[in-house]
Every structure is written in C-alpha cells, then in structure tokens.
C-alpha cells in the first residue's frame, strides 16, 4: 500500500487519507480511528532519491547495507536520506539490498505464513552481504530487530540466518561500535542543545538505549536525557485502531507526552521508532527526529 500510494499518486493518496469522509468510513468499516492522522505518502520515495542521484564515490572505509524499511522508504524518506548522508560523511559507501517488507506487520497480526515468506526473502537478499562481512544497518527498531529475534522462530532451519542476524545492527549500535574502536571521524557543530530521548520498546528489550546515548552525545555540547517511560502507546498499529485509541493515548500520557510538553521549545525530541514519533506528534504537536536526522543535522557541513 505504501509503495502504491507514494510517488506519482502521492497527492491523491494524501488527500484521501486526510479526507474527513474517508476517515469516517475507515473508522466505521475498518476500525481505523478517525481521530488519528495516517502517515502521508512521499512524492519521492527514498529508493527513487537513491537511484536518481547515481553512482557515488566508493567509501574509504568500505560499504554498509542500509536496511531501508517500508515506513522510512515511502512515508518518511527524509530519515533514510539523513542516514545515507550521515554514513557517507563517516566514510562508508551505502548500498541497498533490494529487499521487500521484513514481514513484521504481518507477524504482528498473526499472519505467520505470509511473514515467513517475507522473512525468507529478506534473508536471501541480505545473506550475500553478510557473507562478505558487510554491516547491515537498520533504522526502524521493530524491523531490524525482527531479524535478530523472531526470524529464529520463523526460519529455524535457515543456515544463512545466523550470519545475517550477526551482521544486522541498528544505526546507533553501529556508530557506537565505530566510536568505541576509534573508527568514527565526524565533525559536529559546537552548539549547545538539550536532547530528550525516548526509547522504542523493541530497542529497550533487545539492545537497550546505551548506544543511543553514546551517539546522540557525540556533538560535544549536546546534553542527552532519556524519558523514564514505558511504551509510547502506539505499539505499531495498536494506536490506530479505534477500539484502542483511548488506551493508547492514556499510555502516552503516563510519562512520555507530559515530558515532551514540559521540555523547552529548543529541546530536540529524538525517537528511533516511527510509531513513537507519530504518537509524539499526535499528542503534543512536537516533531520528533530520528537519531539519523539529529546527527546529520549536527554535522558541520550539514547544519541547517
């Protein structure tokens, strides 16, 4: 749906998802809350941008595969673009594997057969890169970490999965590892900024927010504080469902949304999860950045 709705049809698609009558129909007929704003579709998906700019110079530190998920390809391409520019500034050549959906949305709805087929396709696409030792860098925690977690149950006999999972890292993990080994040479602005971080549930349970703290604090005068919160309340499609809309907001109002409202207007709100950023926007009107956007914007030659 995201692929079909983006590109040349984006204007029509965005009109449709924001039309009051259509939102009412979606609410009454499909259970998608009319109170929510669905993500807009990009006029230029990330993959189109990536292809249009042509061949780039080889990275002096080798290549990485950018695991571009559906949301950051067709709905929020600015995130994948920021990640590409950040990784290239760090000396890495960015390549795409040409994979399809990771299968996470299907798995969350119990469509195990469909999710398994997508998982198998994803592993096949990524395996050649993993075999060469090429890092696979993900932006959306729930997508990237599905490879390291649920794929083990979906594909118990896949002899290529272990190697793919071993080389699959969130962007923050990869950058933190490079920084720890003295292999990260990025020049950041010397501005002083406060950063308010919200960790994604999959991220907190499987990785932790330590890598996020490490890399968001790379600009010397950036001070990072994490919201002491649980789930933002969206949990993927959960918060979009009319029957769960109220409880979704109540979850966000426990700690996350009040913390965002109480923060200074100049504070940078940062969240890796797309659904977390959607909840923050819906509940507070504030725009949260992906870590890739915050770091790219803080580069000396990329600062707004």
Task: Spell out the key features of this protein.
3-stranded parallel sheet, alpha/beta, 7 strands, 304 residues, 18 helices
Describe the protein's architecture and organization.
By secondary structure, this protein is α/β, with parallel strands linked by helices. 50% of the residues lie in helices and 10% in strands. The strands form 2 sheets. The protein has a 4-stranded parallel beta sheet. Helix 4 packs across helix 6. The model has no long low-confidence stretch (mean pLDDT 92).
What portion of residues belong to β-strands? 5-15%
Q: What is the β-strand count?
A: 7
Distance between the termini: 33 Å
Q: In percent, how helical is the residue content? A: 40-55%
Assembly type of the chains comes to single chain
Radius of gyration, taken over Cα atoms and rounded to an integer in Å: 19 Å
Short summary:
The protein has helices at about 1-5, 10-20, 20-30, 45-50, 70-75, 75-90, 105-110, 110-130, 140-150, 150-155, 160-165, 170-180, 200-205, 210-215, 245-255, 255-260, 275-285, 290-300, and strands at about 65, 95, 135-140, 170, 195-200, 220-225, 270. With about 300 residues, the chain is α/β, with parallel strands linked by helices. The chain is globular.
């Amino acid at each position: 749906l995201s692929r079909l709705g983006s590109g040349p049809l984006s204007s029509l698609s965005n009109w449709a998802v924001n039309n009051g009558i259509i939102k009412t129909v979606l609410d009454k007929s499909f259970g998608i809350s009319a109170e929510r704003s669905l993500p807009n579709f990009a006029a230029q998906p990330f993959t189109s941008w990536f292809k249009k700019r042509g061949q780039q110079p080889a990275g002096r530190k080798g290549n990485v595969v950018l695991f571009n998920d559906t949301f950051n390809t067709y709905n929020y391409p600015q995130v994948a673009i920021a990640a590409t520019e950040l990784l290239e500034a760090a000396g890495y050549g960015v390549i795409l594997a040409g994979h399809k959906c990771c299968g996470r949305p299907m798995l969350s709805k119990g469509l195990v057969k469909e999710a398994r087929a997508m998982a198998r396709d994803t592993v096949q696409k990524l395996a050649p890169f993993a075999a060469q030792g090429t890092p696979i860098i993900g932006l959306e925690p729930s997508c990237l970490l599905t490879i390291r977690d649920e794929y083990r149950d979906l594909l118990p006999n896949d002899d290529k999965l272990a190697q793919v999972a071993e080389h699959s890292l969130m962007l923050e993990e990869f950058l933190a590892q490079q920084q720890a080994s003295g292999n990260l040479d990025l020049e950041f602005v010397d501005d002083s900024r406060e950063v308010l971080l919200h960790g994604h549930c999959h991220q907190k349970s499987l990785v932790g927010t330590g890598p996020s703290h490490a890399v968001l604090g790379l600009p010397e005068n950036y001070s990072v504080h994490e919201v002491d919160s649980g789930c933002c309340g969206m949990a993927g499609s959960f918060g979009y469902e009319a029957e769960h809309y109220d409880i979704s907001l109540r979850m966000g109002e426990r700690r996350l949304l009040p913390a965002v409202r109480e923060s200074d207007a100049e504070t940078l709100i940062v969240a890796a999860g797309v659904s977390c950023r959607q909840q923050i926007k819906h509940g507070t009107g504030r725009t949260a950045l992906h870590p890739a956007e915050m770091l790219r914007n803080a580069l000396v030659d990329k600062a707004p």
